[in-house]
Each structure stands twice: as C-alpha cells, then as structure tokens.
Amino acid sequence: MGKNSHSFNETNLSQARLDNSQRIGGLGDWEYDFVNQRLLWSEEVYRILGLTRKDNPPDSATFYDRVHPDDLAYVHDKKKTAAEGLVRVDFEHRIVRPNGGVRHIHQIAEMVFDAQGQPVRESGTIQDITERKLTEETLRQSETRFRALSESTPLGVFECDAAGRVIYYNPAMVALSGRPAESSNGQGWEETIHPDDRAA
User: Rounded CA gap, 36 and 33, in Å?
Assistant: First the structure.
C-alpha cells in the first residue's frame, strides 16, 4: 500500500507540474481518440476558453461555440484540411470567452491514420498569444504614426536598419539630397553625408 501510495503521489505531482507549466506558458493540449470517441482537454484549454471542467465536459461543439464568428469558417476549413490527410495544420484565430473577452490563439493540430487511411487520433495544442498580438498592433500603430509625422515634417528624416543601411527617406530628405528615395535604399547612413564632413 505504501508503494502504491508513493506511485500515486508521483503521478499527481507530475500532473500538477505539467498543469503549472501549461498555465505559465499559456499553452493547453487536447486529444481526440476516434476508436473510443473520447475527447480530452488539459486544464489550460479550459483556462484559455474561459470555461470550467465542472460545467463543460470536453466537447467539440463547445469549442466551436467559443470560436469568433468571423473566424469560424476559417477554423472549420483548417480542420477539414487535417482530416483529409494533411498530417499537421498550424494556424491562428480568435475565440470569444463567455464574458465577451476576445483572445487570440495559435493552434496546431495533427492527425494519425491507420494502415487503411482511417483516422485513429487527432491531437494538438492551443496557445494564448493575445499579448503578442496586442504588442504587434501597438508597434504597427506606432510605425504608422511615425511615417505620418515624418511625411509631413519639413525636417529631413531617414531610417536605417540594424546594419546601418538606409531603408527610408522622407520627402524632406529627398528634397535636401536632390535624389529619389529609392536611390539611397541599401546605402550606409554615412553615404548620405558629404565626403568632406564625414569625419566630423
């Protein structure tokens, strides 16, 4: 009995550590057994969807109810692609939680077929990437504002990449340099300076 109790505790500990790791990473996993017609969701899947295990046993209809209406056809199409024989699909879409909150998720799904080509198991992961999406949108808006400002300012503005190559000239810089912006793309920034002034 002591040995069995130790094994039980080890199993519980491993599951608790897995649940905690998924929670930290915002990554849940799921699996559907075609033979036994059984669907399994990890705790993180429930957290991402904003559901509780007690009130919502794993069910594909429950999941699709949470998919954003504008993304539903896209998600069905991706699932159909996997079912038709593509082993792995990798895509992003939105879900709507019961409280109305919209989350962005990254989903990967894989199908396993038997020798006769019949599906045996489908499994995958869903990861909450909402924070990444919000950061990307903030950067996009910041870039849009920068371009709008630089296009209207009378000051010459140019932008370089990490290697110091010019990747953007604003209209004022074009006027100052007397050459088209595209002729300067790819040059080092120092090439925009008059040769007599580069040392300074």
Answer: 6
